[in-house]
Amino acid sequence: MTGTAEPLLRIEGLRTVFRTHGGEIAAVDGVDLSVPRGRTLGIVGESGCGKSVLSLSVMRLVAHPGRVAAGRVLLEGRDLLQLSAAEMRDVRGSQVAMIFQEPMTSLNPVHTVGFQITEAMRAHDPRASRAELRDRAIEALKRVRIPAPERRFEEYPHLLSGGMRQRVMIAMALACRPKLLIADEPTTALDVTVQAQILDLLRDLQQETGMSIILITHDLGVVAEMADEVAVMYAGRVVERAAAGAVFDDPMHPYTLGLLGSVPRLDEERETLLAIEGSVPPPFALPRGCRFHPRCPFAVEDCKAEPPPLRAIAPGHEAACLRAPVERLAA
Ligand SMILES: Nc1ncnc2c1ncn2[C@@H]1O[C@H](COP(=O)(O)OP(=O)(O)OP(=O)(O)O)[C@@H](O)[C@H]1O
């Protein structure tokens, strides 16, 4: 990753497992990542590759029968996995906040928007008066560019459009000025125009506040627009990691090439592939060796032996592939 300054968040050797009838499975299996201050890390990969479990692990919100089995999640050097439940509650919202794909499931339909924002604020500042909280909540609605915030404050969530609901969620998430915002598919449920508005808003808010963002998405267009750094996940592991420009211009892992819908050719033009065949194997049916090898057009016998570690292929650009960079393989 670029930059030498200490990152805001460093994830080391994270492993999150679920107990199932067939035994314990690892949905996140040895992930190392870092998020620089004020920057956006995009985490991409197909459905089921472990993106959401990774973010829930950072928030310590993995529900039973799941648990974080190993690793460290260092926020400014402090390991969140070692905090007491009370300390972690304090970190959530005040230092790290999260927004999800479908805001309606996170907003309570029986309470007004204002009530929900002020309750979230009260949890972190129990001594604030009602009037103070109201003012702050309206301020928070203004920050996310919600028109007529005083009126919206009194309304119930179902009266708002999907885009407005996501703005309310962002307002709640940012109310306590977190240093890190985790956005899990924040625009997936929205139509394209609204999607662009929400991404613009997140970018503006990042400029204003200097917060870091982890943006989780299966949409490479969103990542291209937003991310400074990109981590590509496959079957619970990071398979490629670099500055966003490098991942898009010079992808080195065959899976990334597949996601980008392109294969390298001698004349350096890209030829479109319809899709990578097959799907992400579930954690209980992982192939030996490289987890991508059954779907990989470049796989050789050695790929079936050991899982390849992430290694630097170019400065600041890592890939977990014996054959990387695969551009060379086209020659
Ligand atoms: N409660 C659970 N019990 C067992 N396995 C689980 C549980 N929750 C998630 N998993 C497994 O963990 C793996 C990763 O899931 P995760 O939701 O993180 O993927 P994702 O990349 O975020 O996909 P999506 O975009 O569909 O949410 C999946 O194979 C899933 O089956």
UniProtKB/TrEMBL annotation:
Localization (cell): Cell inner membrane
Superkingdom of origin: Bacteria
Family, per entry: Belongs to the ABC transporter superfamily.
UniProt KW keywords: ATP-binding, Cell membrane, Membrane, Nucleotide-binding, Transport
SMART domains in the cross-refs: AAA (SM00382)
Membrane topology according to the record: Peripheral membrane protein
Domain ABC transporter residue range list: 9-260
GO cellular component: plasma membrane
InterPro entries: AAA+_ATPase, ABC_Ni/Peptide_Import, ABC_transporter-like_ATP-bd, ABC_transporter-like_CS, Oligopep_ABC_C, P-loop_NTPase
Pfam families: ABC_tran, oligo_HPY
Lineage, opening ranks: Bacteria, Pseudomonadati, Pseudomonadota, Alphaproteobacteria, Acetobacterales
Main location: membrane
Protein name according to UniProt: Peptide/nickel transport system ATP-binding protein/oligopeptide transport system ATP-binding protein
GO molecular function: ATP binding; ATP hydrolysis activity
Any one GO BP annotation for this protein: transmembrane transport
